[in-house]
Specification:
Blueprint (H helix, E strand, L loop, with lengths): L9 H28 L4 H34 L9 E3 L1 H19 L2 H22 L3 H7 L2 H26 L1 H15 L11 H18 L9 H8 L11 H6 L4 H28 L6 H17 L6 E3 L3 H6 L5 H16 L2 H7 L2 H21 L6 H27 L5 H9 L4 H8 L2 H16 L3 H17 L13 H20 L23
Antiparallel strand pairs: 1-2
Length: 527
């Protein structure tokens, strides 16, 4: 007998404030990129892009709430948590700086850049929809440690680090807000009248920031001038079709496909990772439906004028741990849609210091990193660490590139050599970190199968790594043929070596791990 799941629980308030503020921060960053980097006219930003984005969010979060409702109904469970979804943050920067900005500068028209971004999403949407039918098989043959290990790398490098740095730049707000959140979400404490910890943290951050502003100081980027400027963004704009702009962008198809294809594959792997993460937390969602839904809602958003793709978010276990169930997802979509359609995004975020929200993102990153180790065999821990490393390389390269760009310095072979002499192996970071989510998955899978003595499977993943590296999907910054030949050759040699190991037979290998050398450092040094 099927039960009727509850659409809202007290824990949904916690998840709504956490997930909703996460989405709002992403939209704030996105709006800043459009207005100040691309110099996009406000009538396009607030009249076309944000309304279309709000529609995409409404459809996405509503669908995943429905999937959770159906799962809860079928299983009779009351702890099913909907998958979180929203604008794909990595793609937000890629489509801005790799597609829209160069085309805007070359044509002198930011609207042309917007049109190119729409075509980029158009192609990625179809890659997601088609790939959705392949993804279940990939999940079946890929170890959980590989899927979650590369996800842990994303969570540590690209979700946790920036919020952590922001918190210690404004520690009175950021670090104290982190303690407020951890005491509740990790420590189990309840605040008076059941007020959600996320709301307590945000209220504390606002109190400190606006108190400082009243005394003439600016803390956390909050100021009366910024609030006044945000009020000017008020208006009402519903999404309207932008099919003509999509077709105009096909002029730049050659430039677009170079990144649309590899990032479409990135989306497939990331969505699979996040579905695996949800299953590890107890909620099984069909991979094909998830990927197809991402593609469909992204396509609808694109045809209405949104140049940013939708993605299932990392973080399901975090929202579930804080009590999120079904309602938080749909409620977030409704609220974000209304804020986008009424043009109050900038006003709302001008009231709240971003540093008060940063601890929530750090908390999610901590949970995802921990989950990779908690839901996999202990013996797979080294493979998880290996899967994380490419993301650390990609993060380090991003910092170096940003520093050089801010200083107006062009990268050159001489500079690369000088950095190497100083211990900064930029070339290694570029090769190791390119295509990090795929290379992390492949390396971790190879390591897991070696640990399990399944050498033929390890060889198969090594050959897959060789092919993807040869084509530039891994360890290369552009698509092509023979992009990084030495790395591709290395994977082929690894595959051959592993096949030799497989043919040698299990009797040739000891039944216990090789003992640690006697002069190895102790894991527990003397106190």
């Amino acid at each position: 007998m099927q039960t009727t799941p509850r659409l809202w629980t007290p824990g949904d308030w916690n998840a709504l404030f956490g997930f909703g503020t996460n989405i709002l921060v992403n939209i704030l960053v996105l709006t800043g990129l459009l207005r100040f980097v691309l110099q996009m006219p406000d009538e396009i930003v607030f009249g076309r892009i944000l309304p279309a984005l709000g529609l995409m969010m409404l459809l996405s979060t509503g669908y995943y709430a429905w999937l959770a409702y159906r799962l809860a109904q079928a299983t009779g469970r009351s702890d099913v948590c909907a998958l979180p979804s929203g604008i794909s943050v990595p793609h937000m920067f890629v489509v801005t700086f790799v597609i829209m900005l160069p085309i805007s500068l070359s044509t002198g028209d930011p609207v042309r850049g917007w049109e190119a971004g729409l075509v980029w999403v158009f192609f990625q949407s179809f890659i997601l929809m088609i790939g959705g039918f392949v993804a279940p098989w990939v999940r079946k043959v890929t170890p959980r440690a590989a899927l979650l290990g590369t996800l842990a790398g994303v969570s540590i490098a690209f979700i946790s680090m920036r919020p952590a740095l922001e918190m210690f730049m404004n520690p009175v707000i950021g670090v104290v807000c982190l303690a407020i959140i951890l005491v509740s979400w990790f420590g189990g404490a309840r605040y008076p009248r059941g007020i959600p910890a996320g709301l307590v943290a945000i209220a504390f951050g606002m109190l400190i920031a606006w108190g400082a502003a009243a005394l003439g100081f600016e803390v956390g980027g909050i100021s009366a001038a910024g609030l006044g400027a945000a009020v000017s963004s008020f208006g009402f704009s519903l999404p309207i079709p932008a099919v003509d702009h999509v077709f105009n962008g096909f002029e730049f198809l050659g430039i677009i496909l170079v990144t649309a294809i590899p990032f479409g594959i990135y989306d497939l792997v990331e969505a699979m990772d996040n579905v695996e993460s949800a299953e590890a937390a107890g909620d099984h969602f069909p991979t094909t439906r998830v990927l197809t839904a991402d593609g469909v809602v992204s396509l609808i958003g694109c045809l209405m004028g949104n140049p940013f793709i939708n993605a299932v978010y990392i973080g399901h276990p975090g929202w579930k741990a804080m009590g999120g169930r079904i309602g938080y997802s749909a409620a977030t979509g409704v609220i974000v849609a209304l804020l986008c359609w009424f043009g109050v995004i900038a006003l709302l975020l001008a009231l709240v210091p971003v540093v008060a929200i940063s601890p929530i993102l750090l908390y999610i990153g901590m949970l995802i990193g921990a989950q990779a180790f908690q839901t996999t065999p202990v013996t797979h821990a080294p493979a998880i660490v290996l899967g994380m490393l490419p993301h650390l390389a990609a993060w380090a390269k991003t910092l170096i590139d940003g520093t050089l760009g801010a200083a107006g310095v062009q990268m050159s072979p001489e500079l690369i050599d000088n950095m190497a002499m100083g211990g900064v192996l930029y070339e290694g970071l570029a090769v190791f970190g390119s295509g990090a989510i795929l290379s992390g998955l492949v390396l971790a899978a190879i390591a897991v199968f070696i640990i399990e003595r399944k050498f033929e499977m390890a060889a198969a993943f090594a050959m897959a790594g060789a092919v993807m590296t040869f084509l530039g999907f891994m360890h290369g910054e552009t698509l092509g043929f023979n992009v990084t030949p030495m790395v591709s050759l290395a994977y082929v040699l690894i595959a051959g070596f592993l096949m030799v190991c497989a043919r040698a037979g299990a009797v040739s290998f000891s039944t216990a791990p090789e003992p640690v050398a006697s002069d190895a450092p102790s894991a527990h040094p003397a106190e």
